[in-house]
Amino acid sequence: MAAQHRRGGISLPERSSASKPHSNILARITSSPIVSRGKQAASDAAFFSKKLLRSTGKAAWIAGTTFLILFVPLIIEMDREQQFNELELQQASLLGAPPTAPARS
């Protein structure tokens, strides 16, 4: 209908052509190299973060289980020996023996 001109009338642009300039600008922006580089950088950062988080979790699991298996029994045994030495000193003082300094190794 826009092709038919009426004499003395005002022709208005069609609605579909009014929305095209906005979509053209939007299409240009989304297809620009800067936006595609930004998307690629964000994707790479997410991939790296996910991999880092996964490997950090694995390392934390290994460190935690190693600590529990190796060092906790050692700490318990050292505490037990400390209590045993204190008990010997207490018994020796009750029996009247002169207090001796515990042997350090």
From TrEMBL:
<keyword id="KW-0472">Membrane</keyword>
<keyword id="KW-0675">Receptor</keyword>
<keyword id="KW-1000">Mitochondrion outer membrane</keyword>
<keyword id="KW-0811">Translocation</keyword>
<dbReference type="GO" id="GO:0005741">
    <property type="term" value="C:mitochondrial outer membrane"/>
</dbReference>
<keyword id="KW-1133">Transmembrane helix</keyword>
<dbReference type="InterPro" id="IPR017411">
    <property type="entry name" value="Tom22_pln"/>
</dbReference>
<dbReference type="GO" id="GO:0006886">
    <property type="term" value="P:intracellular protein transport"/>
</dbReference>
<keyword id="KW-0812">Transmembrane</keyword>
<dbReference type="Pfam" id="PF04281">
    <property type="entry name" value="Tom22"/>
</dbReference>
<comment type="similarity">
    <text>Belongs to the Tom22 family.</text>
</comment>
<feature type="transmembrane region" description="Helical">
    <location>
        <begin position="59"/>
        <end position="76"/>
    </location>
</feature>
<protein>
    <recommendedName>
        <fullName>Mitochondrial import receptor subunit TOM9-2-like</fullName>
    </recommendedName>
</protein>
<feature type="region of interest" description="Disordered">
    <location>
        <begin position="1"/>
        <end position="24"/>
    </location>
</feature>
<dbReference type="InterPro" id="IPR005683">
    <property type="entry name" value="Tom22"/>
</dbReference>
<keyword id="KW-0496">Mitochondrion</keyword>
<keyword id="KW-0653">Protein transport</keyword>
<keyword id="KW-0813">Transport</keyword>
